[in-house]
Each structure stands twice: as structure tokens, then as C-alpha cells.
Design brief:
The protein is an all-alpha fold. It has 2 helices and no strands. Helices cover 86% and strands 0% of the residues.
Length: 42
């Protein structure tokens, strides 16, 4: 596999991870669950 293909796959994977993270943080149910978990630590 060429270095350009490896770099393209890595960039695509990073962009996918960022998009998934952005999608999760825009979901209100996820944010409430995350806040509940944070408060459960105290």
C-alpha cells in the first residue's frame, strides 16, 4: 500500500472520529447522561 493511500485512510478515520464525536455532543440525551455520570463521581 502506498504512503499516500495510508495517509488518506488515516485522515478519513480521524475525520470520521471527529464527526462521530460532534454528533454525540449535539445529542441532548448524551449530554444529560454524561453530566449524570460526572456528578455520580462526587
Amino acid at each position: 500500500m502506498s504512503p499516500l493511500a495510508k495517509r488518506s485512510i488515516a485522515w478519513a478515520a480521524a475525520a470520521g472520529a471527529l464527526a462521530l464525536t460532534w454528533h454525540m455532543y449535539t445529542d441532548p440525551h448524551f449530554m444529560v447522561g454524561l453530566a449524570d455520570q460526572l456528578w455520580a463521581c462526587f
